[in-house]
Specification:
With 243 residues, the protein is α+β, with helices and mostly antiparallel strands. The chain is 40% helix and 15% strand. The N terminus is likely disordered.
Amino acid sequence: MADRERDFRDVRDARGNEGETGAAGREGVPDDVARAWDALVATARRTVADGLVVGTSGNVSVRVGDTVLVTPTGVPYDRLAPGDVVGVDLDGQQILGSLRPTSELPMHLAVYGNTGARAVVHTHAVHATAVSTLLRELPLIHYMSAALGGAVRVAGYATYGTRELAENMLRSLEGRTACLLQNHGTLTYGSTLSEAYDRTAQLEWMCRVWLTASSVPGLTPTLLSPEQVAEVGERLRGYGQPE
């Protein structure tokens, strides 16, 4: 992985200032794709700023029509520029950019192929990853579990970037918009990058709450019932400002 990261840094350095303006790399890229790429890069950088990933771990994608934009493998997010657009079709064939897509592409494509997702966020968040090593699912520790579809399941371990991991993830996502990946991290999806990111942050926060509450000697956290969480789910349908 370290050698791969150095290879991509060398590629970026060889480009000089071209990537900063993005002029050459963005020729022929539709405006909606360019805007989506900018939003994707901003979201990827936010995962680092908020401590959900370290270095080049984790990845982000967004779907624009039949094109899936994804973060490239081994490139630090603060080095991504407007001209670094990376896109594949729904079969995984690269149609935009010269940088290779994330190694977790099979997982992202599996989500798009089996749900109505328009954006996916994968992280190695500390508390969520810790919980993934302890439990088969995150208990109903807080009513915001409703925003993720209920108790968040843990997908069985498989090597990163494999179809096996993608299949394990899909089983755990059934009826959910988030799952934990055993000894690995998190995956969430949504109708927008903001929604997918917010679900990631919410999942990490709930994992931290569970770890904190369950660490008190002699006490066991009180959990909510599925019925209580389902009631919250109904209330959340009308939450926020009208559009």
